């Protein structure tokens, strides 16, 4: 009996699904962090009753790498931006859990713990998240050889306010923010946007995200600049969007107007709308048997990002 159990465990350990490689966390910056100032603010982490983890007051941004089982990596990477209204990060179900799912597709995933807008820690809170997203793209490209990645196949995924950040990075890469930007491109190869905050217009905005990033009284010019549907060009990366029609937090029209902007500019885009699901469902929209990650796998495969 013991011998049979031992052999069974050996067989399980040898299976590809069991060979999950250890995660590696590393800082986004060496030395001084751009757009930062000394403060007494400290990062906090809250574990909810359901086991969810919420991170706030990020001072030291970093990336956590999730590597596919040995021999399955296809050279594509995705940097994941969790949501949380630019006030916290839902870093588990919109970060770590998603990274593990991408690993099953052979994708190397990086969860971005980006700085949230904060006047106490940042001279200009309106650019801090984008600085971190652009630095993450540079850093992953810089380390492409280490992770056996194709530097031209590094995409950006975002949920809710993280979707705003991903779309922001995907539409304004031609003008990198900050000084000493570095030579690497900050254009994502593709975008994956889940119930994203797209527009800061009065009719479509998620008020908390806009207030946290721009303050209570943004100028019309700021509202336009940070409304990503107005920044789409022919160079915007191919985009995959998912949203629920009954989302009461971020109106579904956020995804629709971005999709329409992609159509107007000839950008390849795929939009999946569910009648129900609300906001923040992460990997699992419990109102449907359809699994959006299956649709994502098909889209990635059709575009050649799952081939080795």
UniProtKB/TrEMBL annotation:
One of its GO terms (molecular function) is hydrolase activity. InterPro entries: AB_hydrolase_fold, BD-FAE-like_dom, GDXG_lipolytic_enzyme. Residues 66-260 form the BD-FAE-like domain. Pfam families: BD-FAE (PF20434). Keywords: Hydrolase, Signal. This is Alpha/beta hydrolase. The keyword Endoplasmic reticulum does not apply. It comes from Hymenobacter ruricola. Residues 1-22 form the signal peptide.
């Amino acid at each position: 009996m013991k011998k049979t159990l031992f052999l069974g465990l050996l067989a399980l350990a040898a299976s590809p699904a069991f060979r999950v490689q250890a995660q590696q966390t590393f800082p986004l910056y060496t030395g001084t962090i751009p757009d930062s100032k000394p403060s007494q603010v400290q990062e906090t982490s809250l574990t909810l009753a359901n086991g969810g983890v919420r991170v706030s007051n990020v001072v030291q941004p970093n990336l956590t790498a999730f590597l596919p089982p040995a021999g399955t990596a296809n050279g594509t990477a995705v940097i994941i931006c969790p949501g949380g209204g630019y006030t916290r990060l839902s870093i588990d179900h919109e970060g770590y859990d998603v990274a593990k799912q991408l690993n099953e597709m052979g994708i190397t995933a990086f969860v971005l713990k980006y700085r949230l807008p904060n006047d106490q820690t940042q001279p200009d809170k309106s650019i801090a998240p984008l600085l971190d997203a652009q630095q993450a793209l540079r850093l992953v490209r810089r380390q492409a050889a280490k992770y056996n990645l194709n530097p031209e196949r590094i995409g950006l995924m975002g949920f809710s306010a993280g979707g705003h950040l991903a779309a922001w990075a995907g539409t304004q890469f031609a003008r990198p923010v900050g000084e000493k930007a570095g030579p690497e491109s900050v254009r994502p190869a593709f975008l994956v946007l889940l119930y994203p905050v797209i527009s800061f217009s009065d009719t479509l905005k998620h008020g908390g995200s806009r207030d946290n990033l721009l303050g209570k009284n943004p100028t019309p010019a700021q509202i336009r600049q940070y409304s990503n549907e107005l920044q789409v060009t022919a160079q915007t990366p191919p985009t995959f969007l998912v949203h629920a029609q009954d989302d009461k937090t971020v109106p579904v029209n956020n995804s629709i107007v971005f999709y329409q902007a992609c159509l107007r500019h000839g950008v390849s885009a795929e939009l999946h709308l569910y009648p129900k699901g609300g906001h923040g469902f992460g990997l699992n929209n419990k109102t449907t048997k359809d699994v959006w990650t299956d649709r994502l796998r098909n889209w990635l495969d059709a575009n050649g990002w799952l081939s080795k």
